[in-house]
């Protein structure tokens, strides 16, 4: 069984798209189709159903998927273990991070890392924190630096690097600014989407204070939320690090949930020397 063909199968299975798999693997779409066809020929089984633009796994494909992940993960672990024997910090490093962490926390660390370890081939994938944790779980990336889940999956090892307090904010001319006891229930909120780690933390804090916004506008990007708040479309809870002249914090004692930002790795997978060097470069909790 050709490993390139197996890796291509995995990319198509996870993206549900031959074109997206081609982008991920830096191949042409015909090359992806050829590899999948070769694997199907080797196995004597059809692995995908292609109906219009929809791509779905057949029963054989669903059976093969976890096995393919395990085979490729085991080979990756073997490669890392052998490479680590040389004590060299080099080779590929796949890092997942969220847009917020990538913009506001990682730049100085990445700058120092790339200067200190020039032989590392660094690949950065920007994605939502929840997706990044799944990518670590599936072995698609070596590590993630993201918003941490409150209750991580058993096979994920997390470490808090930064405490990230969230504060209630509005535009400087919002009606809530002049209220001695701001009533958030009477105004619209702008929050991260339901189901995200940050939204779960916010929802818990709001429930503890008996706050139920009359309407919620959702967007995954905190910088976009800040902009929408600044033009008066509603209130939000944002990291202190995003406070600027365009928005104003509200005096609501106790409404200050704290996100944990940090690293995520798979505790059963061998870390490469490059991944270990990146983790060592992250600061301690603070």
UniProtKB/TrEMBL annotation:
Entries under InterPro entries matching the protein: LysR_HTH_N, LysR_subst-bd, WH-like_DNA-bd_sf, WH_DNA-bd_sf
Signal peptide per UniProt: none
Domain of life, per lineage: Bacteria
HTH lysR-type domain location: 1-58
A molecular-function term among this protein's GO annotations: transcription cis-regulatory region binding
Protein keywords: DNA-binding, Transcription, Transcription regulation
Pfam families registered for this protein in UniProt: HTH_1 (PF00126), LysR_substrate (PF03466)
CDD domains: PBP2_LTTR_substrate
Family per record: Belongs to the LysR transcriptional regulatory family.
Name this polypeptide is given: Transcriptional regulator, LysR family
Source species of the chain: Thioalkalivibrio sulfidiphilus (strain HL-EbGR7)
């Amino acid at each position: 069984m050709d490993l390139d063909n197996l890796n291509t199968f995995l990319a198509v299975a996870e993206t549900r798209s031959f074109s997206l798999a081609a982008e991920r693997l830096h191949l042409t779409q015909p090359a992806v189709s050829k590899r999948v066809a070769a694997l199907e020929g080797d196995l004597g089984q059809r692995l995908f159903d292609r109906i219009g633009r929809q791509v779905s796994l057949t029963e054989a494909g669903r059976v093969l998927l976890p096995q393919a992940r395990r085979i490729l993960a085991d080979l990756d672990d073997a490669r890392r273990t052998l490479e680590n024997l040389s004590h060299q910090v080099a080779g590929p490093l796949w890092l997942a991070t969220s847009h917020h962490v990538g913009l506001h926390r990682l730049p100085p660390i990445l700058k120092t890392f790339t200067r200190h370890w020039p032989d590392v081939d660094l690949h950065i994938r920007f994605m939502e924190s929840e997706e990044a944790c799944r990518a670590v779980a599936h072995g698609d990336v070596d590590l993630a630096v993201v918003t941490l889940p409150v209750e991580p999956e058993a096979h994920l090892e997390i470490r808090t690097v930064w405490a990230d307090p969230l504060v209630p904010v509005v535009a400087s001319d919002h009606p809530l600014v002049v209220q001695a006891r701001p009533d958030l229930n009477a105004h619209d909120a702008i929050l991260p989407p339901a189901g995200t780690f940050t939204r779960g933390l916010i929802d818990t804090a709001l429930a503890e204070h008996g706050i139920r916004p009359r309407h919620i506008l959702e967007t995954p990007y905190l910088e976009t939320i800040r902009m929408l708040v600044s033009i008066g479309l509603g209130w939000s809870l944002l990291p202190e690090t995003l406070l600027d002249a365009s928005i104003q914090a509200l005096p609501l004692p106790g409404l200050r949930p704290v996100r944990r930002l940090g690293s995520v790795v798979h505790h059963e997978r061998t870390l490469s020397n490059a991944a270990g060097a990146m983790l060592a470069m992250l600061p301690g909790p603070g």
